[in-house]
Amino acid sequence: MRRTLCWLFVGLLAACQAQSTQPVTATKKEVDMKNDANKVQKLKFTGTVKYKSFEGGFYAIDTADGGKYHPMGLSQEHRRDGLIVEVEAQTVPDLLTIQQYGTPIKILSIKVLDDSQISNKDNRM
């Protein structure tokens, strides 16, 4: 019985180490998804500037439909939690941030629509 179990175990180990002889290739859909993710996209949206206190603290822009954007180089005058803005921006593909929040964007233009909802959350940045 022991010998049978030992041979069974050796057989399982050998099976786990077997390698496939078929080359690994990406499907057309996977390639298209990767290419789309690397393209710069132009955006226009209305959102609320929000101060996020995690990962050292940073400002984000959230939209009413659930969009989350991480603006790179948001100007000092727009770093006010609760500020409602209209933004024209472009995505910054292949950029990873330590915050890992939303889509990184470069703001092309920003217009204040409403500043009556501003809170005192860390507006010093």
Please give the structural blueprint.
Layout: H1 2-17, H2 28-37, E1 42-52, E2 58-63, E3 68-72, E4 84-91, E5 103-114
Parallel strand pairs: 3-5
Antiparallel strand pairs: 1-2, 1-4, 2-3, 4-5
What does this structure look like?
- It is elongated, with a radius of gyration of 25 Å.
- With 125 residues, it is an alpha+beta fold.
- Strand 2 and strand 3 form a beta hairpin.
- It has helices spanning 2-17, 28-37, and strands at 42-52, 58-63, 68-72, 84-91, 103-114.
- The mean pLDDT is 80.
How would you sum up this structure in a few lines?
The chain is of the alpha+beta class and 125 residues long. The chain has helices at 2-17, 28-37; strands spanning 42-52, 58-63, 68-72, 84-91, 103-114. The protein has a domain at 40-114: OB fold (Dihydrolipoamide Acetyltransferase, E2P) (Beta Barrel), CATH 2.40.50.
List descriptors.
OB fold (Dihydrolipoamide Acetyltransferase, E2P), alpha+beta, elongated, 5-stranded mixed barrel, 2 helices
Strand order of the largest sheet: 1-2-3-5-4
Helix content: 10-25%
| CA radius of gyration | 25 Å
Classified by CATH, the class of the domain at 40-114 is Mainly Beta
Structural class, by secondary structure, is alpha+beta
- Given as residue ranges, the uncertain stretches (5+ residues, pLDDT < 50) are none
Element pattern in H and E: HHEEEEE
CATH-defined fold name of the domain at 40-114: OB fold (Dihydrolipoamide Acetyltransferase, E2P)
What CATH architecture of the domain at 40-114 would you give?
Answer: Beta Barrel
**How would you describe the shape?**
elongated
Number of E-state strands:
5
Major β-sheet profile:
5 strands, mixed, barrel
User: Number of DSSP helices?
Assistant: 2
CATH superfamily of the domain at 40-114: Nucleic acid-binding proteins
Amino- and carboxy-terminal Cα gap? 72 Å
Q: How confident is the prediction overall: mean pLDDT?
A: 80
Proportion of residues in β-strands? 25-35%
